[in-house]
Amino acid sequence: MLDILSNLMPFKAEAKLKIESWTTIERPGKPTKTFSAFINPDEIALNYTVITERNPTPGAAGNAGPFLGTSPFEVTLKFYLDGTNANGVKLDVKEKIKEFYEATGYDGKGHRTRFLRINWPGLIWYRANQFAFDCVLKSATINYKLFKPDGTPLRAIINAVFTEKRPDAEVQKDRDDHSADLTHIRVVKEGDNLPAMVYEIYGNFKYYLEVAKANNLANFRDLPPGLKLVFPPFDKNLKRISNA
Fold first, then answer.
1. According to the model, what pLDDT value does residue 118 have?
2. In contact, 238 and 206? CB cutoff 8 Å
3. Given pLDDT bands bounded at 50, 70 and 90, which one contains residue 163?
4. Which percentage of the chain shows pLDDT scores above 90?
5. With bands split at pLDDT 50, 70 and 90, how would you rate the model's confidence at 225?
6. Domains 2-173 and 179-231 alike in fold
7. How many CB atoms neighbour CB 126 within 10 A?
8. Alpha carbon distance 155, 83 (integer Å)
9. Superfamily for the 179-231 domain
10. Sign of the dihedral through C-alpha 82, 87, 90, 96
11. For the chain, which terminus, N or C, has the lower number of CB atoms within 10 Å?
12. Across the strands, what pairs with 21?
């Protein structure tokens, strides 16, 4: 299991995390409900689990088995709700929790929870070119921390876990686009390097020289952002397949 805890970069005051929701998985048009974070979470956990064969060969030393696939990507967020006016902004904790439930809980018609999209400007959700996370709510825990004398909550923490959920057609298209048997076109981003890009597509670093030749790169160690690269399919003998 790969468990990544990312410290989040500071954003402008208006760049708040939003959870948008729809009643259908295609998420057409504008969302029907939206939950906006009052204070952005100060921590996010991204969980990506690789599934391997768990039946080792009898007598063999401990080792990971053959690759079987991956489980759905999961994201854990922690929201702090403060109704004490300590930061000069008024907040009704009960209303904010109600807003969260209405945006993420049952839709009232489909007898299931809503289909969500988490948006947070500047954050990449551990996926290439993905700046929003399509998901459903897996679990939510609400911890009340402070109350008025009449029992009204003044502070609360929402710990929520979201599981990736996309339309089947989109998942299949993404799977096909990552096949090493197809020609791929990628645009270089800041910090990209050719061996890493080659590994992402082919699952092996050894093709980077062939990709450099295919793109007439004189210096593949210094790729300028914005450069468009072609990653052709290869056969097992490292010969580029023509007419790709």
1. 92
2. yes
3. very high
4. 32
5. confident
6. no
7. 15
8. 6
9. LysM domain (3.10.350.10)
10. negative
11. N
12. 33, 116
